[in-house]
Design goal:
By secondary structure, this protein is α/β, with parallel strands linked by helices. The chain is built from eleven helices and twelve strands. Belongs to the Mrp/NBP35 ATP-binding proteins family. This is Iron-sulfur protein NUBPL. Keywords: 4Fe-4S, ATP-binding, Iron, Iron-sulfur, Metal-binding, Nucleotide-binding. Pfam families: ParA.
Length: 299
């Protein structure tokens, strides 16, 4: 049974305040062994078959745009999909998915993610007031744990997780708490973005999380009159993908209406389903599903 009232945001936030043991720097082998025992135990999410992380390492490359459009496209292909906003400090999923209501809470004190466009959504942006979240690492890790395991996600085929820039607390907490089925890398064709994306890929390889492939955002624009493709940067993406041993799943053009769709809370793929942008995400979604099916068959 779900609660019949909306809980106050402050009441929900209190559930994030759990005690967390800080790890000491430069631990010797014995300290490392003792600390490893206190790490959270990795366990599957109830009712969730696969968890796909959208990551880059670099900010401003379109991770949330990718996560949102991938989620709604997967839902359109018949998958039961959830979308978790892992960016604790700068959540954008509520705006881009047009979700604003505070989650209901069931009789087991689990949050019930609101649904829009056929996708279950959960974000810190639904739990805090308009001010900034000013937290240290332990609280961030506790928040990720609560968003993951303190919510009624199932039944889901795929949970898409949008992640913040960097290679820190959020990424480590995800890999420690739940088994991740794969990582979808996102980058622009600029060398500065690709080099940081490479570091993100190496981090997930270190954590034994497989790489699904690479999505190149903002790679080109297409002329409205002649449909000529105008490249915006020297294409180094393919070179880096080859070095990482992954495929470039799609090269996404810059679309004029993309920003307006995000601000209006209507995913571009839903508003312009016949566009090259939407066609690219149809292809990406198909490849993600195929990757997950192959992974399950091998295991």
């Amino acid at each position: 049974m779900f609660s019949t009232k909306l809980f106050n945001k402050r009441e929900l936030l209190r559930t994030f305040s759990t005690s967390t043991q800080c790890l000491l720097p430069k631990a010797d082998p014995r300290q490392a062994e003792l600390m490893a025992r206190s790490l959270p135990k990795r366990a599957p999410l109830e009712g969730v078959r696969d968890i796909v992380v959208v990551s880059s390492g670099k900010g401003g490359v379109g991770k949330t745009t990718t996560a949102v459009n991938l989620a709604v496209t997967l839902a359109g292909q018949g998958q039961n999909v959830g979308l978790l906003d892992g960016d604790i400090f700068g959540p954008s999923v509520p705006l881009m998915m047009n979700v604003a209501e505070v989650p209901l809470v069931d009789d087991r004190n689990r949050m019930v993610p609101p649904v829009n466009y056929g996708v279950k959504c959960l974000s810190m942006g639904l739990l805090v007031e308009s001010g900034p979240v000013v937290w240290r690492g332990p609280l961030v890790m506790s928040a990720i744990q609560r968003l993951l395991k303190g919510a009624v996600w199932g039944p889901l085929d795929i949970l898409v997780v949008d992640t913040p820039p960097g290679t820190g607390d959020v990424h480590l907490s995800l890999s420690q708490h739940v088994p991740l089925s794969g990582v979808l890398l996102v980058s622009t064709p600029q060398k500065a973005a690709l080099e940081v994306t490479r570091k993100g890929a190496e981090m997930y390889r270190t954590l034994n999380v497989p790489l699904i492939g690479l999505v190149e955002n903002m790679s080109h624009v297409i002329c409205d009159n002649c449909e000529h493709k105008i490249e915006l940067a020297r294409n180094s993406t393919q070179e880096m993908a080859a070095e990482l041993g992954v495929q470039v799943l799609a090269r996404i053009p810059i679309e004029r209406e993309g920003m307006h769709c995000g601000d209006a809370g209507t995913p571009f793929c839903l508003k312009f389903p016949e566009s090259k942008f939407a066609q690219s995400y149809q292809s990406i979604a198909g490849k993600v599903i195929q990757f997950l099916e192959n992974k399950r068959a091998q295991s």
